[in-house]
Design brief:
Number of domains: 2
Strand content: under 5%
Number of strands: 4
Distance between the termini: 18 Å
Number of helices: 21
Order of helices and strands: HEEHHHHHHHHHHEEHHHHHHHHHH
Radius of gyration: 31 Å
Shape: elongated
Structural class: mainly alpha
Strand order of the largest sheet: 1-2
Largest sheet: 2 strands, antiparallel
């Protein structure tokens, strides 16, 4: 009997964890069905995490400063500079292909040279301006919502990697707790072999093991000494390690330089981002009398306005190319991860629990009831087997 109870405890805890992660998408008919607790609550957890960490850190602008804007300037210049002539050619061939082909070579070379000379200064002021306004330009919650909607398994991977040791421990302890409860039921059954006893005992074992398992993850909040043991919630006890893994995965998968740049340009405040780009690129033409006169003589006043618009559009496309560089994203991710991890480690146990617990709090009763029903079925099966053997 203790062996069966241990198996019930092990299986119900294993099933509860599987139900926490899977299925990633809702499976069922109408309102009847199931979706993994964590994928269903992923957006809520991510928002709480970012709110907690940014509240302590300051804001997104502060994280941007940690990214070392001078390295962002170097990245842009190193990627755009060598292609400056190509970008100018593309703009001019789109607007005035015949005229550009027939323009004297020394004039074209002067335009190329002017663009290359002005680029570092323009980019430096542009990056500085972005750093001052990043918190207003990027809707971080919208970015997180979009990414988690596109990749519903992402929070699963974060939880599984961050808490793999704790999840294994919960399953193992389920077997131990089930075995102890079974050892308590065995003498009761020998004295009172009532038909209802084993199913009810199975219900209690299944329900209690799931309840204890969930509470082992989050309780007690602070370390307590019970006899010879120092006890604390499994996730809370490893807050520093879990913070490092969580922050690394968020920085590599959610808040990357590329995704933040895309959110700036294509997000809710994209028009404002484009206006900042335009403000900093306009001097490329307007601040050089030779360049301005050359452009106006060759393409006319209307063409000159179209030229500036085309340059702005080309700059936006170039920004996408620059920040999609995997190497640059890989290099900057540890900076974001370090900033997030430091703030997560500084959270008190209550705040740290609030990042993880919302995923389970609303579903705890359902998970425990599933464990109870499975335990009841196991108890009923055990009763039938024992009665068959007795017969």
């Amino acid at each position: 009997m203790p062996v069966v109870a241990a198996l019930v405890g092990w299986f119900t805890n294993w099933l509860a964890i599987q139900m926490s992660f899977y299925p990633v998408q809702f499976v069922g008919l109408g309102p009847i069905g199931w979706q993994g607790v964590i994928p269903r609550k992923a957006e809520k957890m991510a928002h709480i995490c970012i709110d907690r960490t940014l509240r302590r850190f300051g804001d997104l602008n502060e994280i941007y400063r940690q990214l070392e804007p001078e390295k962002i300037v170097l990245q842009i210049v190193s990627r755009v500079g060598p292609r400056m002539d190509e970008y100018i050619d593309e703009v001019m061939y789109e607007l005035q292909p015949v005229l550009w082909d027939n323009l004297p070579l020394f004039v074209r070379n002067r335009i190329y040279r002017w663009g290359r000379e002005q680029l570092p200064q323009r980019i430096e002021s542009l990056v500085e301006d972005f750093g001052d306004d990043l918190n207003d330009l990027v809707d971080l919650k919208a970015l997180l919502s979009h990414e988690l909607e596109s990749h519903p398994d992402l929070m699963n991977r974060i939880f599984q990697q961050a808490g793999s040791a704790e999840l294994r421990s919960v399953i193992t302890r389920g077997a131990l707790i089930g075995g102890l409860l079974g050892a308590f039921v065995a003498p009761l059954w020998s004295h009172y072999p009532e038909p209802w006893l084993l199913p009810v005992a199975g219900l209690v074992v299944g329900f209690l093991t799931n309840w204890i398992a969930i509470n082992l993850i989050f309780r007690p909040l602070r370390p307590r000494r019970i006899l010879f043991w120092r006890v604390q919630g499994l996730f809370l006890r490893r807050q520093p390690e879990i913070s490092d893994v969580w922050a690394r995965l968020v920085a590599e998968e959610l808040i990357t330089v590329e995704k933040v740049a895309d959110a700036m340009i294509d997000g809710r405040h994209g028009d404002r981002t484009r206006a900042i780009i335009q403000k900093h690129l306009r001097p490329l033409l307007d601040h050089s009398l030779v360049m301005k006169l050359t452009a106006q003589v060759t393409v006319g006043m209307t063409g000159y306005t179209d030229l500036k618009k085309a340059i702005n559009q080309k700059a936006v496309l170039a920004t996408h190319d620059v920040f999609s560089d995997p190497r640059f994203n890989h290099e900057r991710a540890p900076v974001v991860a370090k900033a997030l991890a430091e703030q997560m480690k500084a959270l008190g146990p209550e705040e740290f629990q609030d990042i993880l617990r919302p995923a389970f709090r609303e579903e705890e009763l359902q998970l425990m009831l599933v464990g109870g029903v499975l335990g009841l079925l196991a108890g009923a099966l055990q009763f039938l087997v024992l009665n068959g053997l007795a017969g």
